[in-house]
Amino acid sequence: MRRPIAELAQILADQGHEVTVVWPMDKKKSEVNQLHFDKLLKGNDSITIVPIWSKEIGAILWNVPTDFRVISKLWKVGRTHDVLQVWAPFYPTPLLPFMMKRVGLMKAKLIGTYDTIPSYSFSMGRITNKLFRTFFALMTKPFLNAANLTTLYSELLVPHAVQAGFKKSKLRVLPTGVHLKVQPKDGDIREEFSIPSDVPIILFIGLINKRKGVFKLLDVAEQLRKEGHAFKLIAVGKGPEQELFNSLIQEKGLSDVFLAPGRRQDVHNFYHAAHAFILPAEGEGLPGVVMEALSYGVPVVASNIPCIPDLVQNGVNGYLVEPSNVPGFAEALSTILKDAGLREKMSVAARENIAEWDWKVRSKEVEKLYTEALS
Q1: What is the pTM of this model?
Q2: Which of 185, 208, 245, 278 could form a disulfide with 272 if both were Cys (CB 3.0 to 4.6 A apart)?
């Protein structure tokens, strides 16, 4: 489940729309290891969840449907709903509605939504780049362009989408949003992990894999420690490379400055405790964790890749660093940690600049998009 889907479903349901979320799930994991925003979909009588039973291929994080009723479930949703918005159709289940639309089995207006254009908006490595470019070459013209409209998270993605074969006339830029209501602190991270009050906390939240840049966190921590900084770098999350990540923390002797507590439901408590947030990702869309960090007033140091510059203004509410520039990430964090006045100015700017991303604004733009699709 993606955070924007959960939040948008809740907003639209509260506005009186009939909302169904089609969600690939592993039966064995459907009630465990849930993300902190999954609860938005639970216990809401106005939201129907249609599970597509799937098996996750952990190494590549693809959910492959094992549900023999997948076509009939999608057909029913497409027949009973006016609009079907599909996020990231790079996976087997989200790709199916586009194929069904092309052959006349999808009555609903179809909107494809992309937070990245892999291998175009960022590199995924030589072999994976070739695979994604082959995917777009085979799928964009015959199937993905069957959508009534295609939305991108940022203007920065438009040239990449055109290059990947999407029809420019169908492209719309519609960023996602964030709930700006800060959740009050109900737990003390410092007390839980015995972190002294005078030790700054650097926070990462996300999937533990190479694309999120987690292994660069280790190098950043090493450099900051060499420079004599007292700090704790906390990496919250789980992922396919968790075991390797944890072992490298031990091998590099970083246990004194590094914490990897795994996935947590109480991420708000970590935002409250953080002095700075870091995301050294290789490829991203509009990262929800960056939006959340800014809404909590936490300065962000992140990769200068689409679409992060839409959120982080260099030197204003954080710093942008080229993804490969590990010393640059350390230098930016060092600047924030050493200068309390700068940190406070960035914190104020973070809260001010994120206001335009409020779901109160974005949800109205989504409704306008649905109206356009239906016209």
Answers
A1: 0.87
A2: 185
